[in-house]
Design a protein that fits this description.
By secondary structure, this protein is mainly alpha-helical. Helices cover 95% and strands 0% of the residues. The protein is elongated. The model has no long low-confidence stretch (mean pLDDT 86).
Length: 91
Protein backbone atom coordinates (compact mmCIF):
# COMPACT_ATOMS: atom_id res chain seq x y z
CA UNK A 1 0.00 0.00 0.00
CA UNK A 2 2.85 2.35 0.79
CA UNK A 3 4.37 1.75 -2.64
CA UNK A 4 1.05 2.70 -4.24
CA UNK A 5 0.95 5.95 -2.27
CA UNK A 6 4.49 6.78 -3.37
CA UNK A 7 3.59 6.09 -6.99
CA UNK A 8 0.52 8.34 -6.69
CA UNK A 9 2.66 11.14 -5.23
CA UNK A 10 5.22 10.76 -8.00
CA UNK A 11 2.45 10.72 -10.58
CA UNK A 12 0.91 13.89 -9.13
CA UNK A 13 4.32 15.57 -9.15
CA UNK A 14 4.92 14.57 -12.74
CA UNK A 15 1.47 15.76 -13.80
CA UNK A 16 2.05 19.13 -12.15
CA UNK A 17 5.43 19.44 -13.87
CA UNK A 18 3.84 18.48 -17.17
CA UNK A 19 1.11 21.11 -16.78
CA UNK A 20 3.72 23.75 -15.90
CA UNK A 21 5.82 22.80 -18.92
CA UNK A 22 2.77 22.91 -21.20
CA UNK A 23 1.96 26.40 -19.95
CA UNK A 24 5.55 27.53 -20.47
CA UNK A 25 5.57 25.96 -23.93
CA UNK A 26 2.46 27.94 -24.91
CA UNK A 27 3.98 31.16 -23.55
CA UNK A 28 7.23 30.52 -25.44
CA UNK A 29 5.37 29.82 -28.69
CA UNK A 30 3.52 33.12 -28.33
CA UNK A 31 6.82 34.89 -27.70
CA UNK A 32 8.35 33.33 -30.79
CA UNK A 33 5.34 34.31 -32.90
CA UNK A 34 5.58 37.90 -31.64
CA UNK A 35 9.30 38.02 -32.37
CA UNK A 36 8.77 36.55 -35.84
CA UNK A 37 6.29 39.33 -36.62
CA UNK A 38 8.78 41.86 -35.31
CA UNK A 39 11.55 40.41 -37.49
CA UNK A 40 9.35 40.60 -40.59
CA UNK A 41 8.40 44.20 -39.79
CA UNK A 42 12.02 45.19 -39.21
CA UNK A 43 13.15 43.41 -42.38
CA UNK A 44 10.62 45.38 -44.41
CA UNK A 45 11.76 48.60 -42.79
CA UNK A 46 15.39 47.74 -43.49
CA UNK A 47 14.62 47.01 -47.14
CA UNK A 48 12.83 50.34 -47.42
CA UNK A 49 15.73 52.19 -45.82
CA UNK A 50 18.22 50.44 -48.10
CA UNK A 51 16.14 51.46 -51.11
CA UNK A 52 16.10 55.04 -49.87
CA UNK A 53 19.86 54.93 -49.38
CA UNK A 54 20.38 53.64 -52.92
CA UNK A 55 18.16 56.43 -54.24
CA UNK A 56 20.17 59.02 -52.35
CA UNK A 57 23.45 57.62 -53.65
CA UNK A 58 22.16 57.59 -57.20
CA UNK A 59 20.94 61.16 -56.79
CA UNK A 60 24.33 62.29 -55.51
CA UNK A 61 26.20 60.38 -58.19
CA UNK A 62 24.22 61.95 -60.97
CA UNK A 63 24.54 65.67 -60.45
CA UNK A 64 25.34 66.18 -64.12
CA UNK A 65 22.37 66.20 -66.55
CA UNK A 66 24.30 64.18 -69.14
CA UNK A 67 24.95 61.50 -66.53
CA UNK A 68 21.26 61.46 -65.63
CA UNK A 69 20.28 61.06 -69.27
CA UNK A 70 22.78 58.22 -69.70
CA UNK A 71 21.47 56.55 -66.55
CA UNK A 72 17.87 56.85 -67.80
CA UNK A 73 18.85 55.33 -71.15
CA UNK A 74 20.64 52.47 -69.41
CA UNK A 75 17.66 51.85 -67.13
CA UNK A 76 15.29 51.94 -70.11
CA UNK A 77 17.51 49.44 -71.87
CA UNK A 78 17.57 47.11 -68.88
CA UNK A 79 13.80 47.37 -68.44
CA UNK A 80 13.30 46.61 -72.13
CA UNK A 81 15.49 43.52 -71.82
CA UNK A 82 13.58 42.39 -68.74
CA UNK A 83 10.28 42.84 -70.59
CA UNK A 84 11.58 40.76 -73.49
CA UNK A 85 12.67 37.98 -71.12
CA UNK A 86 9.30 38.03 -69.31
CA UNK A 87 7.44 37.87 -72.61
CA UNK A 88 9.60 34.92 -73.68
CA UNK A 89 8.89 33.14 -70.40
CA UNK A 90 5.15 33.74 -70.73
CA UNK A 91 5.02 32.23 -74.22
Amino acid sequence: MEALDQLNKKLDTLLKKHAALETENIRLRETVATQDKSVVKLSKKLASLEQDMVSVHIGKATDNEDEKDNMRKQLDSVITEIDKILNTLND
